[in-house]
Specification:
With about 300 residues, this protein is α/β, with parallel strands linked by helices. It is built from nine helices and 15 strands. Strands 4, 6, 8, 9, 11 and 14 form a six-stranded mixed beta sheet that branches. The chain has a four-stranded mixed beta sheet with strand order 2-1-3-12, with helices on both faces. Strands 5-13-10 form a three-stranded mixed beta sheet, with helices on both faces.
C-alpha cells in the first residue's frame, strides 16, 4: 500500500491525475492532496503536512503534472523500498555534489523520464545510463523532485526543512539528509512516467540553491565512486566549470553586482579554487562584459581548466 502526497495548485485535485493513478498503480493507495491554491505553504511545509497524514508504509511525493505509463508501478516501488538500506527512489539524479551550487545534473547523471510540453505537443524520452549498466536501479545522491518515494517511518530521521521558503531545492535537501544519514538513494528504471513541465530555474531557485550549499558546506564534496582514480583532480575540474556556470546564471537572473561578487568569491574560497576570478575587480569586469555584450555561457566554458586551476 502506498500513500501519495501532492502539493496542489488546485482546490480540487485533477480527476485525470487521480484516475491515472487508480488505473496504473496496481495496489491499494491513498492520495493526500495539500490545497496550496492560495500559496499558503512552501512545498517543504506542504509535504511535511502530507507526510504526517499518511497511513501506509510507503510514501510517494509526486507532482500533479505527470502521467504514469507503467502498469502495477506501485509494486515496483515497494520492491525497491523494502531494502532497509534504501533511502529515497526517484527517476532522475546524479552521484556528485561539489562545493559549487549546482543541480543534480552532471556528466554522470542517471535519468529515466519522458519530458513533455503541452504547449508544443512534444514529448521526449530521456534515458541516460553509464555504459556498464544493465540493472533496474542506479545509486545516486541527489534526485529530481518530480517523483520521490520512501518509507513512511523515515520521517523520524529526515524531514523537509521548513527553514527554506518557496518551491525549490526541497528534493536536493531531503536527498542529502537521506544520504548523510547512511541511506542509499536510487534512480529506478522499471517505471515509466511522463512529466509535463520543464521547471522554472528563476532567481528564487538560485537563492535557495545557494542557501542549500551553505547549509551543507561542511559535508561537501560528496560522491559515489563513479569517478576515476584521480578523483580530486576531476572534482576540481568540475567545480571550475560549475563556478563559471554559476557566475553566468547569477548575472542572467539579475542578481546585483555585489551579490554576484560575494557569492562567487565565497564559493571559490570554499572549493579552494585559485585563479583569476578570485579578484573582486576582475569579477566586476566580467559582470560588466556579460551584461553589455550578452556573452553566451559557452564563452566561459571554453576557458580551459588547466590554465586557471592551480594546486
Amino acid at each position: 500500500m502506498i500513500s501519495i502526497v501532492v502539493c496542489s495548485k488546485q482546490k480540487i485535485l485533477s480527476e485525470i491525475f487521480s484516475e491515472n493513478i487508480r488505473r496504473t498503480i496496481g495496489l491499494e493507495f491513498e492520495i493526500i492532496s495539500i490545497d496550496n491554491s492560495e500559496n499558503k505553504f512552501s512545498i517543504f511545509e506542504a509535504y511535511n503536512q502530507g507526510w504526517k497524514q499518511t497511513r501506509f508504509d510507503y510514501v510517494c511525493f509526486v507532482h500533479e503534472d505527470v502521467h504514469f505509463n507503467s502498469q502495477n508501478w506501485g509494486e515496483n516501488v515497494i520492491r525497491h523500498l523494502q531494502n532497509p538500506e534504501t533511502g529515497i527512489c526517484g527517476l532522475a539524479g546524479g552521484p556528485l555534489v561539489t562545493h559549487i551550487p549546482a543541480s543534480w545534473k552532471n556528466k554522470y547523471q542517471s535519468v529515466n523520464i519522458i519530458q513533455a510540453d503541452y504547449r508544443k505537443n512534444k514529448s521526449e524520452r530521456l534515458v541516460r545510463l553509464p555504459h556498464d549498466f544493465n540493472g533496474v536501479s542506479k545509486e545516486v545522491i541527489l534526485l529530481d523532485g518530480v517523483f520521490l518515494c520512501l518509507r513512511r517511518n523515515l520521517n523520524s530521521i529526515i524531514q523537509f526543512d521548513e527553514s527554506f521558503s518557496g518551491f525549490h531545492v526541497y528534493d536536493l535537501d531531503i536527498c542529502l539528509q537521506s544520504f548523510t544519514s547512511g541511506f542509499k538513494n536510487y534512480v529506478i528504471f522499471d517505471l515509466s512516467l511522463t512529466h509535463f513541465s520543464k521547471g522554472n530555474r528563476d532567481k528564487i531557485y538560485f537563492k535557495n540553491l545557494i542557501m542549500l550549499y551553505k547549509k551543507w558546506e561542511t559535508e561537501l564534496p560528496l560522491s559515489i565512486d563513479y569517478l576515476n582514480t584521480d578523483k580530486s583532480l576531476q572534482i576540481k575540474e568540475i567545480e571550475t566549470k560549475q563556478l563559471f556556470k554559476l557566475f553566468y546564471k547569477l548575472v542572467n537572473r539579475q542578481f546585483s553586482t555585489i551579490e554576484i561578487i560575494n557569492e562567487i568569491t565565497y564559493f571559490s574560497q570554499q572549493s579552494r579554487l585559485n585563479y583569476f576570478l578570485k579578484s573582486r575587480f576582475v569579477i566586476r569586469i566580467f559582470i560588466y562584459l556579460t551584461k553589455i555584450y550578452s556573452l553566451p555561457v559557452h564563452f566561459f566554458q571554453k576557458i580551459r581548466t588547466e590554465n586557471i586551476v592551480k594546486f
